[in-house]
Amino acid sequence: MEYVPRERVTSLTAVLSVVSLAVVFAAAGGQIPSSTVPTAPEWFLDLIPHVNVLISATAIGTITLGWRAIRRGNVDRHRVAMLSSFALFAAFLTLYLYRLVATGGAQPFPGPDAVYQFVYLPILAIHILLAIVCIPLVYYALLLAFAHPIEELRRTSHARFGRYAAALWLISFSLGIVVYVLLHVIYS
Fold it and tell me: Which Gene Ontology MF annotations are present (predicted)?
């Protein structure tokens, strides 16, 4: 069953990607005032990074399960795992952006300057770059899956884009966990 018209996959991918990235960049750039989001208690804001690391670890698991499922020909399990991965990504991003807007910006790095410059920033930069690149890849693979019946998906670029999206997604989520460990475990 078609949920997305086939001829709209590319344009929908572009629109969703631009809107998503605009929201992310606006939040990261301080362009969304904190008054636009509901006020939360400090304990809730402090809890978000810990919840997000659990979401990231779970997403790594669901992406891996989805990848294994499709390699074994289990389309139904693949679909469930990848939709779960997308839902986890959306939850992560919602919580992250909420905290970013509510607190007025990113958390400063509490560790030594040398670690900040030569370890933290490069890891963070790669994590962010991969997350940005993943957005249109994930949307495209997802929309192709919604636009074609399962029997036709092999004749589309769903698998190719899906492989790139999954690989980059795994690396990005993994680097996000490293960022968390640096911020909240090693230099807390």
Answer: cytochrome-c oxidase activity
Cα–Cα–Cα angle for 70, 84, 27, rounded to 5 degrees: 125
Parent domain of 66: 6-186
At 7 the pLDDT is: 86
Give one DSSP letter per residue of 82-141, joined into a string.
HHHHHHHHHHHHHHHHHHHHHHTSPPPP-S-HHHIIIIIHHHHHHHHHHHHHHHHHHHHH
CATH of residue 112: 1.20.120
Q: Is residue 1 part of a domain?
A: no
Does residue 90 sit within a domain?
Answer: yes
Q: Six-digit token pair at 146?
A: 């919604």
The answer to whether position 105 is within a domain reads yes
Question: How many domains are there within the chain?
Answer: 1
What digits encode the pLDDT tens for the residues 11-68?
999 999 999 999 999 999 999 999 999 999 999 999 999 999 999 999 999 999 999 9
**pLDDT band for position 2 (50/70/90)?**
low
